[in-house]
Every structure is written in structure tokens, then in C-alpha cells.
User: Which sequence fits this backbone?
């Protein structure tokens, strides 16, 4: 839509004036069409100032999600971007769109999920207008055995984005929960699709859900003790579009380095991991066991010393780990 193109141009200028003539040339439309798009943006709540012989500049933006807010031409992740008000699950939506040929970096962003889900089939609370729900489709050129590490890399990428935007760095509860002040700020779910005939990788979907402006009441009595939003932690929530842009930038850096920069991302994951050195309760099909987390292995698995003796390396696909002294 033209309004998205005009908004993207204004946002790229970061408050510096841009003339209507320059926009019409860049977009290949008339100045009248640019003016109409500008008025449509103003009706949506964008505060756009103008001055003769100077042009237009963006003063203030509403809390809206749109390609004009989020797109950036030099970014591989999100180069093709779809923004939805509501969806059952952004991961589901991206997989529906990937039935045929699908572009690398396709990203779905939504303001609400009616069927948000996390690891091991758990539900993920996704109320309208309160959080950010994003899924990106990636086609990494690497052996299939490298792909599971994307989950851990994505957790570090989320920590990077939150730190850059908000000035505080969360930690990671192994394997992929992003934690702030001892509670869950963000969940990550990665899923992959293989070619039926060859078992070759078709794509990976990285799904991220971030709590932005939820209150205790929004989470409900069961979730509130273990969940936190940026608003609760910081006293004021950033705009969802700001969080989405930071995430897309961070995921783009991740994708550019995957899997060649593995050692650096592993070191950063180990530094962010809050589980190491803590007593843990491990849940598996065999039941529950208590122990202590010793460290993160080269493949991002977790080494645990059991309370009743012995050590074991745990894969994130096989077990669930909980803290004995709270969520972490």
C-alpha cells in the first residue's frame, strides 16, 4: 500500500524533512497521491509536520503494526512482511503460506494470537494489543544437524534486541525462555519442515512472543507468578513496532552469521544462561528428577549432575527443566 511506502520513507529520515516531490519521484506516483497517503496516516494517529520548501517529517506514531513501520530494504529477515491484527498462531500462518514456493526471510507479525503455543504443546497467552507475536521463515544453508542451534541463537538475539531498545539485558532459562527479574518475558518456538522424498530441509520457522504491556490481570492467576511484561519491568512499555524493529534487526544479524559464527553465539548463550549453577527439577517421560545444572555443552545441550549421583547431558527436545527455587 502507498501509505506503507510513504511511512517507510518518513521513518528512514528519522525526523528529517522530506519533500513531497522527492517522495513522488522515489515512489513513482503523483504528489497528490503522496498527499492523500499522508492524510490517511494522520487519520490513523500519526503526527506528521510540514513546512514550505522543507517537506514533511514524522513527529509521533501510534502503537500500530504495519509494513511501513517495520520494513527496511537492506534487511534479509522481514524483506517480505505481513502484519495481521489477529491470527491463530504466527507459526501456523507462515506454514500455511509456505505450502508452495516461499521467499527466504518471510515474516508474519500479529497483534493477537487466538491459539498461541510454546514448547511441548503448551499454550502461550497472547491477548490483543498487549504483546508482539512474530514468526520468521529461514532457509539456512547448513547441515541438518546444525539447525536445532537456531533456538538457542534466537534466545540470544532476543536478549540483544531488548538490551538495545530498553537498556536492560534479560537472561535465558535453558533452553529458550527469555527471563527478566526472574519471570518469563518471551517464549520462542522453532519448527522445521523437511522434504518428504529426501528429508532435506525446506525451511525453519522461528516464532517469538514478547510480553510488552500486560498487567497481572492480563496474565491471570496461574500465569502471573511466572510471567512479566516490559511495562511491569520498566514502568513504561515501548511501542510494539519499536520492539518488532529491534527483533527483526537482531534476527537479521543472527541469520547473517548462522552457522559460521557458532563459537561466538555459544559463548554469549553461556553468559546469558541463568540455569547453570542452579538446582533444577527435570521432567521427562520417565518422571521427575532433581539435580544441579553444570553447564551448556557445545551443541547447546545441558549437562546435569543428579542429586542421587551421576551426570547426564540433556537435549531440549526430550525434557523440560524447572528451577527448584522459583521459575528459574
Assistant:
Amino acid at each position: 500500500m502507498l501509505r506503507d511506502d510513504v511511512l517507510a520513507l518518513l521513518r528512514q529520515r528519522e525526523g528529517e524533512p522530506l519533500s513531497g516531490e522527492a517522495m513522488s519521484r522515489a515512489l513513482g506516483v503523483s504528489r497528490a497521491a503522496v498527499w492523500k497517503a499522508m492524510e490517511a496516516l494522520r487519520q490513523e494517529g500519526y503526527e506528521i509536520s510540514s513546512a514550505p520548501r522543507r517537506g514533511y517529517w514524522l513527529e509521533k506514531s501510534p502503537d500500530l503494526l504495519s509494513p511501513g513501520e517495520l520494513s527496511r530494504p537492506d534487511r534479509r529477515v522481514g524483506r517480505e512482511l505481513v502484519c495481521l491484527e489477529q491470527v491463530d498462531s504466527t507459526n501456523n500462518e507462515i506454514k500455511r503460506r509456505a505450502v508452495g514456493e516461499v521467499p527466504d526471510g518471510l515474516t508474519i507479525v500479529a497483534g493477537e494470537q487466538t491459539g498461541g503455543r510454546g514448547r511441548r504443546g503448551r499454550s502461550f497467552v497472547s491477548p490483543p494489543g498487549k504483546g508482539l507475536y512474530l514468526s520468521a521463515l529461514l532457509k539456512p544453508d547448513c547441515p541438518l544437524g546444525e539447525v536445532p542451534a537456531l533456538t538457542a541463537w534466537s534466545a540470544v538475539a532476543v536478549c540483544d534486541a531488548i538490551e538495545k531498545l530498553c537498556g536492560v539485558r534479560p537472561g535465558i532459562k535453558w533452553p529458550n525462555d527469555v527471563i527478566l527479574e526472574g519471570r518469563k518475558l518471551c517464549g520462542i518456538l522453532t519448527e522445521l519442515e523437511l522434504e518428504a522424498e529426501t528429508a532435506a530441509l525446506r525451511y525453519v520457522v522461528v516464532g517469538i512472543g514478547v510480553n510488552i504491556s500486560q498487567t497481572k490481570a492480563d496474565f491471570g492467576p496461574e500465569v502471573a507468578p511466572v510471567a512479566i511484561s516490559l511495562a511491569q519491568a520498566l514502568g513504561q512499555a515501548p511501542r510494539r513496532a519499536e520492539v518488532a524493529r529491534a527483533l527483526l534487526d537482531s534476527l537479521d544479524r543472527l541469520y547473517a552469521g548462522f552457522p559460521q559464527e557458532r563459537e561466538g553465539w555459544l559463548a554469549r548463550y553461556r553468559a546469558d544462561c541463568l540455569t547453570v549453577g542452579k538446582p533444577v527439577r527435570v521432567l521427562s517421560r520417565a518422571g521427575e528428577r532433581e539435580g544441579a545444572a553444570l553447564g551448556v555443552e557445545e551443541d547447546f545441550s545441558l549437562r546435569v549432575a543428579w542429586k542421587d549421583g551421576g551426570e547426564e547431558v540433556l537435549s531440549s527436545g526430550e525434557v523440560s527443566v524447572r528451577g527448584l527455587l522459583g521459575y528459574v
